[in-house]
Amino acid sequence: MPRYSFRRELVEITDPDVLERSGERFHPIVMPSSNNDDAVTGKVFKITSDELAAADAYEVSDYKRIEARLRSGAKAWVYVKA
């Protein structure tokens, strides 16, 4: 599995259901970066397969889920720009 660097940006959400639920027009999005100094801080959550499926159903087509190796060496699912 390749190791990526990531950076955080914003994406404009146009899906009316997501806009209604979140109340926010711009959502954070993670993008792979070729700059090894880029990093996105955050938390890793242990979730069930049902919770992962619910997260997949919520995300709009701007996002895709990939498995990434984190700087800690751990692997985690990450939603990145599609």
Sheet/helix structural class: alpha+beta
Strand order of the largest sheet: 1-2
Q: How many structural domains can be distinguished in the coordinates?
A: 1
Q: Helix and strand succession?
A: EHEHEE
**Low-confidence residue ranges:** none
> What quaternary form is this?
single chain
Query: How much strand?
Result: 35-45%
| Distance separating the two termini | 18 Å
CA radius of gyration is 13 Å
Average of per-residue pLDDT values: 90
Q: What does the overall shape look like? A: globular
Total strand segments: 4
Query: Tell me about the biggest sheet?
Result: 2 strands, antiparallel
Number of helices: 2
Question: How much helicity do the residues have?
Answer: 10-25%
Structural features, described:
- With 82 residues, this protein is α+β, with helices and mostly antiparallel strands.
- It has one domain.
- Helix content is 21%, strand content 37%.
- The chain has two helices and four strands.
- It has helices spanning 16-22, 49-58; strands spanning 5-12, 26-33, 63-69, 75-81.
- The strands form two sheets. It has a two-stranded antiparallel sheet with strand order 1-2.
- The two termini are 18 Å apart.
- The relative contact order is 0.27.
- The mean pLDDT is 90.
